[in-house]
Structures are given as C-alpha cells and as structure tokens.
C-alpha cells in the first residue's frame, strides 16, 4: 500500500511541478526547469553515495571517486543522459564489489540500464526496484542474492532484458512479470532455487526470444502458452523437476527455435513413455534448430528414422541417460552439421552404422549401451573428431588401424568391450591425445614402440586388464606430460627402467598384477608430483629406494606381494610445524578476508597470542591450534589453502559465511582433523580427492555450496571412521561411489538436492548403523532399494523423493519394498514423493514401525484403496497421498491417528467424507480437494478446533455448509469451491474471524443474501463467492475487512449500489462484481478513491450508468 500511495504522490508532484504554477515569463520557467533537473541529479548522487555505504569490499577500488566533491556523472560506472540531467546507466559488473544490495538504487528513477552482475552482493532484491519505471535492462546475475523475486518487478513496463541467474533466489516466479512486462525479450532466472510451477502466462510477452530457467527446483508441466511465443529462439529449462509428456504441441509452433534444452527433468515420451516419434516429428518444424538436449530423463521409445529429418543446422544432440532402444538409424548421417552426438547410457543395440562417417563430428559418445560387432573402419574418416567414446558396450574384433587417421583426437575411450588382437601401431599418429583408455578388453601382443608418438598425452594412459605381453617399452619415458599410467593386470615382464623419471608430470603409476622383475629404480624419487605408486603383485626384489621420501606429494604406496628385502626406509615428509607457523597461517588467512561485518577478526593481530584469537582454541599446553570456530560470523573472502598449515587442527568450522573459491586440496594435510564444516558458503569446483587422507575424519559437511563434479570414492574407502556426511544442496554429478558403505559406522548420509545419477550402491547394506539416508532431489534410478533397506534396522529417516526410481516388477509392485521397510523398526520419516511409482497401495503399510510420524507418497501412480490398517501407525502426524490414482472411500479408521496434516487431494476417492475425521482434533491441515467425494460436509468437522487449512474444493459435495464450522476459529484458508452446495451462507461464519488468507465458496449453488457477518473477518485477504445464486446487496460494512486484496462476487444476482465505503479498502487489488444487477453513480466517491490504488476492477456490462476514468489504476473493465 505504501508503494501505491507513493506512486500516486509522485504523479501528483509531477502534475504540480508541470502545471501547478502560473507563468511569469520565459526566464522563470527556465529557472524552474533547471532547478528541477539539478534537484533530480542531486537525488541521484545521494542515492549512489548511500549505495556505496553498504559496500563492505571494493578490492579493485572501483568506487574510489564516488565522493561528494566529484560530479555524479563522473562516478566510475555511472552514465548520465546527454544533457547531464539524470543517471541513466549504472554499470558495475565484474568489479568484485561486495555488500548488501541497497534499496537506495530505487531512487535513480531515470535509470534505463542497471548492471551489477558477477559481484558479491548479498541480501534481497529490493521491492523498491519497481519504482525504476524507465528501466529497460537489468543484470543482477552472479551474486549471492536470496529471498523472493519481488512482484513489483512487474511494474517495469519497459523492461526488455532481465538476468537474475546464479544467485540463491527462492519461492515462485511471479506470474505478473510475464503478464505486465509485455516488451520482454530475454529472461534468465537460471541457477537459483526457485520452486513452484512455471507461470501459465509465461508465453504472454509476444516478442520474447530467450527463456532460461535451468538449474532450479521448478515442477509441473511446461505451460501451453509457450506455443504463442513464436519468436522464441532459446528455451532452456533443464535440471528442474518438470513432468508431463515431451511438449510436442508447443515445439511444433516454434519454427525459429535454435536451442531447446529439456534435460534432467521428469518428462516422459508419448504413450506412457514408449513412443518418441510424435515429439521428433514436431521438431521437424524447427527448421533452424542448432541444439537439442533431452538427456537423463529415462525417456522410453525406439530411436526412429525421423531423427534424420531434423534440421540440417543441428550441431548438438544430447540423448544420453535415457531408455531409448533399437539400433542407430543410418540416416542420422543426414544431419550434416552435427558436431556432437551423445547417445550414451541407453538400451541401444545392433552395430554402429558406417554412415556416421559422413558427419563432421567433433565428439561422439556411444558408451554404456549394448552395441555389438566391429568398430567401423569408416570412423577413421572423421578427421575432425576430438573425442570418441565407445566404452562399455559389447564391441568385438580388432581396433581398426584407420583410427590413426583421426589426428585431432584428444580423447579415445574403447575400454570395457570385448576387443581383441594387438594395439594398432597407427595409434602413434594420434599425437594430440590427452586420454587413452583401452582397459578391460582382450587385447594381446606387445605395447607397440610407436606409442612414443603419443608424447602429448597429458592426463592418462590406461591399458590395464588386458592380456598384453612383453617388456615395458622404454618409449613410455617420452611422455613428459602424462599424469597417470595404468598397465596393471596384464602379463608384462622385464624391469622398470630408470628413465621413467622423465615423465615429470606423473601423479599415478600402477604396474600391479604383472610379472615385472628387478629393482625399483632410485630415480623414481625424482617424481615430485607423484601421489600414488602401486607395483604390488609382481616379482620385484632388492631394497625399497629411500629416495621415495623425496616425493612430497606421495600419498599412496603399495609394494605388497613382491620380494623386497632390507629395512623399511625411515623418515617422513610431514614434519611437525611450530607455533609460529600457526600464527603466520592465521594472519595470512585474515589478509584474504574481504569482509568482516561483525569485526570477529579484530584481535587477530601481531600483538596478540594466537591462542587468544577470537574463535581459536589451542590444546591444553598451548602448543597447537586444535579448533577454529568461525561459523556464522558472516566473514567473506577466498577460502585460503594457508589453513592447511594448522596441522594440529581437529575441528574446522567455517559454515554459514560468504567464503568463495575452491576447497583447497591442501586440506589433505590436516591429518588430525576429526570434524569439518564448510556448509552454507559459496564454494565451487570439485570435492578434492585429498580429503580422503583425513583418516580420523568423523564428520564432514559441505552442503549449501556450488560444488560440482563427482564425489570422490576414496573418501568412503579411506576415511573409515566417518559418522556423518552431508554433501547436499550442491551441483554434484555422477554416481554415488560404490564403496559408500565402506564406512561401517556412518549414521548420517545426506546427498539431497544434487544432480547425482545411477543406482543406490549395494554397499549401503553394510552400513547397519545408518540412521539418516537422504538422497531426494537427484536423478537416481533403478528399483526401490529393498535389499539395502532390509539390512538397516536402525534407520530413522529415509528420503528418496524426486528421483527416477521405480517399484519392483517394472514399476507395478510396491509390496517388496514395503515388506523390507518392516525391518526398520524405529523408522520416523519415509518420503517417496514425486517419482511416478506404480503399484497397488500395499496392506503392508500397516505393518511399518509405529514410530513413523511422516509419510510422503504424493505425486506417484499408486492405485487401489487406502488400507484401513494404516491406522496402526499410531504416531503418524503427516500423511500425504495426494496426486495418485487412489480410489474407493476414505476409511474411517484414519480417525484413530493423531494427524496434524492430511493430504488426499488429486485422487479419485468417492463416497462421503467420514464423520469420524472430526475426531482428529489435532489436525491443522485437511486437504480432500480434487476428488469425487459426495454427500454432505459432516458437522463433526467443527470439532477440529485447531484446523488452519481446509480444502474440500472440486468434489461433488451437496447440502448446506454446516453451522458447526464456526468452531474452527483458527482457520486461515477455507476452500469449498466447485461443489454442489446449497442453502444460505451460515451466519455462524462470523466465528471465522481469524481467516487471514482466503475464503472461497465460489462455483456452488448457494442462495440468499450476503451475510453481514463477513464484515467481522478483519484479517481476510481474499473473498470469492462468485458463480452462485446469491441475492441482496453489498453491505457497506464490508469495508471493515481492511486486509482485503481480492473481492469476487461475480455471476450472482446481487442488486443495489456499490457502497462508497469500498473506497476505504486501501489494500484492495482486484474487485470483480461483473454479471450481477448492480448500479453506480458516476460521481461515486468509492470509485474516485479506488482509482489511485486498485490494480483490477471488473464491473461488467450490467451497470445502469457506465463509466470509465483514467488514473493510477492498472485495469478497469466496464464492458462485457
């Protein structure tokens, strides 16, 4: 309301300045004109100076000249209009400034371009930004902004470009942005934490060409209105929780579409996920399509020849991680501009068509399928190819010599097949190779000397698990850039040559499980980057070279099962550091902290004993820093590797701050560390493998960051004392490590809200002490993990929701999983929502632990009736079975439960609402909406005195509204709409004076006058009584409902005049009294008052006197 009043006063002020004074000559007018612009510019300057005050870090000194003595038009990043009257552009993008995003920017009312992207701004997006009515473009991406996207942004009617990407925004996307900002061309809300559905009117801006919403938590279907966005060039909604069929009806109407990214959602193909043909047929209308991404959605169906009819402009095609079957159509070769084709991790079979060689591919992924036959020699004709991945298939025959023609090849993966014969010498021509993996095949013969041509290999060479023979070729020593060599599990002989030390970049050498003889050369000690050396299970002899102590990075050494003699060399590489080093480490850490708003580090000073530093704890003797507690102090800056010098550290708590950058790999030096909290920061990059060196680690929390990549398996295999692991709320990919269950005493595993795929590892069944397993919000697939769960008797919390798992017997049988759950005798929370699980609701539900308090089974395909023995779960407080295929009646036995929330909406329940539900006096929310319930609303509902939310809408309920409902005095939402209710609205409704949100009795057959008792609902925000048979008049006392934002009395038989008192409703945004028999005087006071505040008035065509006036109103409808 303050906003609306302010806008009205601004309009009034403008009118007074422009027209309010009589003319006294040109000179006076010019002076007033100059004074006005000077005042505006001073206001702009004051706003920018206030903005600067909230900036706590400016490492590049960008704002140095933002000073009273400097003309605002000369402020760095600020641009004024040509006449120097107003600041029209503010560009501070990429300047690394940090601090709160100040609402004072809202005073720059002449601003047209606002660019604050790629900084370290915190806080909320100010709702006052709605005042920037001239704003055309706004960039706030790449910051740390939180909270909701303000509804007031919809007031920016000139807005064409808005980018809020890469923040931590939450809540729903305001629909009004798309309905009101009709000039929008570009919208990017990606990489946040937005929830809810994509607004149904997202297609309302007629000229929008780009919509990026990827990497959020959006649900529901793609709105049909997108089919109106015929100018759309880019649509990217990947990595959400969108459902429904692939949007054929939308895509067919987007002929100019260039980029379509739908990957990592829960969509299905047509005909119950069995038919891809309709969608690919619709795509043929996108004649300029460049990128198509449909990965990791478990899409089912055959890959048909329609793929060859797609636009020849197509350059990128991602179909990996689905359930696509059949052979690869040869006419895929028609896509003449295709540079990337990814069909990996599907159910494809047959041979690889040679026609693919006609393409100018740069990357070809066909791994993880069931392809058979030989590798086509024609692939050697694709000389443009930089990556070829045919791994994990059933390919046989020899590696074709023509592979040597692909001279630009950087990555070649042929591992895990059934390839035989010798490694072709021609492979030495692939001089640009970085990674070469031929492991897990049946290759024979010697490693060819021509391998010396691969001297540019920079990452790894893997020939392991074959049947190779002969000595190690000395040509390996020419690979100076290679980081990993794995030749294990072969039949290699000879000795390890000293020249191997020429491979100065080596981090890993694995020569285990061969027949190598002789001594380990002393020269291996020259490999300064070496981290892992495994020569186990050979016939090596002699002494262990003492020079290995010179390898400062060596963390894994396996010399077992050889014939070494002599003593084990003494000495180590990690000597104890002094107290002075601890002091220096903390001082260096402080130097890179750019913001310390609470002055926590003030006493971190040369003159203070390190053991007296705030949040620092030393051991009893004061020799070592053992604890560093800086959690929740709001410090901001780069996470420094200097902390690794605190080698006596046992507890490191840096959570809930604003630390950014990578997790330093040097943290692996903190060998005494027991617990580490880095959660709630802005850390990026990979989880370092070196954390696996923390053998005493019991607790690790890295949640709520922006970490990417895979979870290092070694953390679980090496850190065997782990009790609690939380990597949730990041962007981790890949599979959960297979040896996650190796930490036998682990009791908490939280991996929710990531992008993890694959199945739950079977090793979890070894974690018999597990209490919490939360992996919801990922892309895990496979059957519900019955064999794991049955071995976790102490499990308290099991959260598997929002993955791609299925029930047993091809998603038709829930019984085995629920039977396994009966072994979890202390289970408290079970969440299996949003996975499309199929099967009958098993009777076994009543045999689950009586300790169960929360049961989420919503948004699945569970059918049948609710078993009455569900009532055995005597401690159940939340039961959500909404959005399933359940039918039958609601069992009265549920009344035996002490439920606080009951969701049964969006099913096919029939029969009456059981009167026994009134016995659940503890219930605060009851949702039975969108079913086929009939009969009367039981009077016993009035016994539920704690009820806050009651939804009975969209059923076939009849009879009168029970008077007993007045006893539900704490109701905040009441929805009885879309039923067959009759009779009058009971006077007893006056008892519901605590309703704060909405009262909806619309679309029934209610009769009689509006009850004056409605006026006692002083806190209600919305009243909808539309589409009934109500009569009488609108009483003036309705203005007592001072919180009202919406009134809908349309489609009734109400008579008389609209009362003047409606003008007192200062919060009113929408008034609809259309299709009644009302009248109004043209000079009515209520209209004049509402014109300065109400956004929507819909009066209809039934007026005795029509009217229309201009004002600060959003919309007045006086016609039909």
TrEMBL record:
Gene3D superfamilies membership: Ribonuclease Inhibitor (3.80.10.10)
Coiled coil: none
Residue span(s) of domain Leucine-rich repeat-containing N-terminal plant-type: 43-81, 584-619
Entry's localization field: Membrane
SMART domains: LRR_TYP
SUPFAM superfamilies: L domain-like
The protein, known as: Leucine-rich repeat-containing N-terminal plant-type domain-containing protein
Species whose genome carries this gene: Tetracentron sinense
